[in-house]
Amino acid sequence: MSRPQAVTRRSAKSEYIETDTGNKISRRARIEGKQNIMLAGKSVVMAGAILRGDLHRKSDRPAEGGEKGGPITAINIGRASVISTDCTIRPPMRMSRGQMTFYPMRIGDNVFIGTGTHVSALSISSHVHVGANCVLSPFCVVKESCKILPDTVVPPHMVIPPGSVVAGRPARVIGEVGEGWGQGGGGEGEEYVEGGDLRALVRSIK
Amino acid sequence: MAATFPYTHYACPCSNLTTPAPTSISAKRASLIPVDAPEDSTFNPHDPRANYSLSPLDRLLFCDECEEIRCQRCYGEEIIHCPTCLFEVPSSGVRSDGNRRSSSGEEVEETYILQCHYCDWSSLDIGVHFSKPTKITEQLAKQRKSRVSSRSPAAGAQPLSHDETFANLATFYKEQLSESGDPQNPYSNSPYSSPNNLARIMSLYGGLSVNALKKTREKPQPMREARGAKEGMLMCSFEDKAANDALLQSMQTLDWANTTTTGQRLSAPANNDARLVDALWPVATRLRTRKCRRCRFCPQYLSYPDPKLKVGNLRYKIRVLALNHIPRLSIRSLQTSCPLPNPAFCLHAADLQQRQPDIQPHITRQYILTIRNPILEPIRITLATPTTTPGRVASRVTILCPSFTVGPAGDVWDEALSSSTTSMATIAPGNGGRQAAMESLTGRGADESLDRQPEAGKVWERTKNSTSVVLEIVPGALKSLPGIVPKSETELEEEELEEGDDVLEVPIYVRAEWEVSEEHDDAGDRKGGKRIVEADGNVKKELAFWCVLGVGRIGEGG
């Protein structure tokens, strides 16, 4: 990796917009429907990522006066999660009774999503590490502390049990994560550990 | 073997490679040549058996009582509570789908099928559908039974099905066991300990009926194997030519993808004979269990997950991880100023293609070895490594400072407070005007830190709970230089590189010593007062293990 150039105070616009809660969103990320996307804090959305917050469930009750019930969240992302470059996050949809309905997608804390993956999962729990160029098909469910190796294709409606290592096309559970998975990283000077605290990684992304 | 360099693997003391067998056992075995103490015998990471004792840090647990590392083979597993089910879906990628209603609309006949969303197989392909979406395994079993029984009368004298054969065999073996088996059991409750005694006493007093006496006098038959289909033997015959021919014919016409793999055949007893994919029967997914781990040598729990199944996260009641108890080593090259990006955390597509460059042989390289101390006391570390790495390719390794101390790990608060101060040392200079100004004030410029030369006997860098020293490595060449004398066949064979020989791995023996004050020494208390208490009330503790550092791959170009 090349050394970062010295940035002076009066530089051009930086790559990332930082929000009050510490989220870093790249200016080159393509985000639709940003009012329907919740980022819990200290999460990163990198360049080229596509977040489709405009695909959300239409409210069934149009004329309720002021009781719309608040904004409909299409995508919920937890703390310290990293969505790498060129990912696509699209809420899963299902055709039922002739109508297309979208379901809200929930991504947990400390989730690392590798570059170029397509995520349409119904939910991804915390401490999950997803490799590069994966495909998580609509309505799959990834439980906590899983590791999804690069280039896997998770078929629709698959439930990945907690603590499993998953690979292949179609994805199969090939093992379990170690006992100490997710522990021990993120301290000063230490390497980032898969499934561990990603706050240090978030801080280092500039 | 990790695919990415650099890595660190720790050796568990369970194997003979790391710890010699205790002398009591080795004295009994004539074949076992007594091995010297571990300090004298080197751990060879290229040994084919070494793979079984090395593990990365996240797979290791630590036993408090024995104060040893425990690897996956050393912690026995117990299944403590009920299996957890996969919440709704019976098997991966296959789900129960669909209501089919009759077109007339009067009768609503709901049927369900299994369907795979990945390859579009559905149970209609084998003609199976279900009347209700629950208890699929039961419905499958019923349909299977009816299918098998409807097939067998048609074909005449069919061999018994798998389940029946298994049942027959099981009853046969049980009978054999009871017939030939232990005479001890009936006598264990009586005051007469041996059967001879009992027989003698009984013969004195008139004894049992004739039959019982005969039975006890008969020599027990040795256990025999099953002899017919009734007893559970499955015979394969070559007489059924027609079926075999038909099978061969279909295997010729259909392609490879339509024949079953061994894995598919072994997935269920129902599938053991299936040779073609369309003869396979759906199998329910195995349920998963939560395992608790205990040390093999002392019955101490090392990892005990919370029995509450519906808890969202995997919570543990007890979890003793190695990385919280042993000093952790990591290595990086001196030339790169910041740690290499971890390939698992590739953020950009371009980084994916980047292969780590090969190490050139015969060029001295310097590496920084960092030891991190997770425990609350300062430890004294002694490192040892053989001068040349064992294995096919010999590289020379020198540790510039083999003996040093590492500070204690503080509490979480200490770390958080001090991280702001120590991070100053690692930020690359020139980032912002303020940083450069600070450095010019303190006189430490960017150039000075780069020009630091590693010195023998001196520690490279010291932070609160970690110390770094420098390792000098001269990688060996993969092929020896061509000599004047042409090599014989055997020598050429010996020089063939096997897989993994070009990986530069350095075995290091790490010994950590520290002192614990007496009241904090819980493990010593439990062991029962055999420890030696120093004059100032401290107990000396020591931990030693082998560790293998994977540095990189050696390239050609010697």
TrEMBL record, chain A:
The keyword Cell membrane does not apply. SUPFAM superfamilies: Trimeric LpxA-like enzymes (SSF51161). GO terms for cellular component: dynactin complex. Its main location: cytoplasm. It holds the Pfam family DCTN5. It comes from the Eukaryota. Keywords: Cytoplasm, Cytoskeleton. It is found in: Cytoplasm, Cytoskeleton. InterPro entries: DCTN5, Trimer_LpxA-like_sf. Gene3D superfamilies: Hexapeptide repeat proteins. Belongs to the dynactin subunits 5/6 family. Dynactin subunit 5 subfamily. This is Dynactin subunit 5.
Automatic annotation (TrEMBL), chain B:
Belongs to the dynactin subunit 4 family. Its main location: cytoplasm. InterPro entries: DCTN4. Signal peptide: none annotated. Keywords: Acetylation, Coiled coil, Cytoplasm, Cytoskeleton, Isopeptide bond, Phosphoprotein, Ubl conjugation. Residues 141-160 are annotated as: Disordered. PANTHER family: DYNACTIN P62 SUBUNIT, DYNACTIN SUBUNIT 4. This is Dynactin subunit 4. Pfam families: Dynactin_p62 (PF05502). The keyword Transferase does not apply. Coiled coil: none annotated. Subunit of dynactin, a multiprotein complex part of a tripartite complex with dynein and a adapter, such as BICDL1, BICD2 or HOOK3. The dynactin complex is built around ACTR1A/ACTB filament and consists of an actin-related filament composed of a shoulder domain, a pointed end and a barbed end. Its length is defined by its flexible shoulder domain. The soulder is composed of 2 DCTN1 subunits, 4 DCTN2 and 2 DCTN3. The 4 DCNT2 (via N-terminus) bind the ACTR1A filament and act as molecular rulers to determine the length. The pointed end is important for binding dynein-dynactin cargo adapters. It is found in: Cytoplasm, Cytoskeleton, Microtubule organizing center, Centrosome; Cytoplasm, Cytoskeleton, Stress fiber; Cytoplasm, Myofibril. The lineage of its organism: Eukaryota, Fungi, Dikarya, Ascomycota, Pezizomycotina. One of its GO terms (cellular component) is stress fiber. The keyword Acetylation applies. It comes from Friedmanniomyces endolithicus.
